Amino acid sequence: KEIVEADKSLKFETLCHSSMPQGSAQKNIIRNVLVLRELGVPQKLLLPLLISKFQPVCGKEKFEESLKKVVEMGFDPTTFKFVEALQVVYGLKEETVEEKISVYKSLGLAVHDVWSMFKKWPNTLAISEKKLTQKFETLKKCGLLEDEVRSVFKSWPVVLALSEKNILNTIETFLGLGFSRDEFGMMVKRFPQCI
């Protein structure tokens, strides 16, 4: 309740009780919510940050570092992508990010491709190595060449969120409608969202 009141009135001092220990989680949350509001994050987007399993608004130094990275990447604070990016950056250690980038590189993607994908869909860095390689192989089963799979990843990284079952069901649906596997592959290359 105090966090919402602090957000409404922007009277941080009156809501931070002197009995609250310095650097307490509640004080951090109030301060961080105020910073986010000053950046222009709408109130409706604050709830996902407050209930996130990583609770990015509870920290101090890590919150500030994560926020700085996300802002420097150019995410618009008025969008949900900003919130997603903040959650992902806050939730991953630097070593984990490097490991994820290495997996993408092993599939033939450049580092700048990974960051471009991250800007389109921040959860790009939250996908496990197993799921990533599985999606790569599944799309190859669709009749796409490796370069074409990379192109699909780069143009529509949300494909990484789809289950193998859904992708295969989509193929079967198109084949059942009379499309050949090659025609389906051409459609996916041009319009990856049809998956």
TrEMBL record:
A Pfam family recorded for this sequence: mTERF
One cellular component term from this protein's GO annotations in UniProt: cytoplasm
The keyword Transcription regulation appears for this protein: yes
InterPro entries cross-referenced by the UniProt entry: MTERF, MTERF_sf
Protein name per its UniProtKB record: Transcription termination factor 3, mitochondrial
Similarity remark: Belongs to the mTERF family.
Gene Ontology terms describing biological process: DNA-templated transcription termination
Keywords: Transcription, Transcription regulation, Transcription termination, Transit peptide
Domain of life assignment: Eukaryota
GO molecular function, one term: nucleic acid binding
Residue spans crossing the bilayer: none
Organism per entry: Noccaea caerulescens
